[in-house]
Amino acid sequence: MGRNLLKGKFFDFSKEREIYSYWEKEKKFQPSGEGNPYFIPMPPPNITGRLHAGHALFLTIQDILIRFHRKQGFDTLWLPGTDHAGLATQEKIEKEMNEKNIPLEDFEIFSQKYKDKNNSEIIHQIKSMGSSCDWDRYCFTLDDKFKKAIL
């Protein structure tokens, strides 16, 4: 029964999705360019699976801080991102490849599909919480622009 609650069988979350889409379209989560800057880089959840209660806690606290400072007139930016979690992800990918009898030579192709699938699920979960991140600035730790910035 609990799973049905989350899938919206008993509750319709379409209004929340509609409001969040409006906020994104209107760029409500981007810095205003006015006021003192206030910035939080999201500690990136890794792509090894779904978010857990610890993620929900830090997302909630950071969202409260960002919204509070936004209401106080600060020029706020909550920078979202996800992480590859190198070794942990590689272990999960190799295990799944073994279970599906996929040859190790296809690791790079399979890992890209794995990343795309899990990454989109994690982003969906963060958005479902109503997190007011500037999604236009989203980055993944292995994206070229991110690696270039680090170097």
Tell me what the structure shows.
The protein has 151 residues and is mainly α. 52% of the residues lie in helices and 9% in strands. It is elongated.
Shape: elongated
Strands side by side in the biggest sheet? 1-2
- Beta-strand residue percentage: 5-15%
* Helical segment count: 6
Q: Which spans of ≥5 residues are poorly predicted at pLDDT below 50?
A: 1-6
Radius of gyration equals 18 Å
Secondary-structure element sequence?
Answer: HHEHEEHHEH
What is the straight-line distance between the termini? 49 Å
Largest β sheet strand count, sense and barrel closure = 2 strands, parallel
Question: How many DSSP E strands?
Answer: 4
> What's the average pLDDT?
83
Counting helices, strands and paired strands, the structural category is mainly alpha
Helical content stands at 40-55%
Helix and strand arrangement:
Blueprint: H1 2-6, H2 14-25, E1 37-41, H3 53-71, E2 75-79, E3 81-82, H4 86-99, H5 107-128, E4 139-140, H6 144-150
Helix pairs in contact: 4-5
Please outline what is shown here.
The protein has about 150 residues and is mainly α. The chain contains 6 helices and 4 strands.
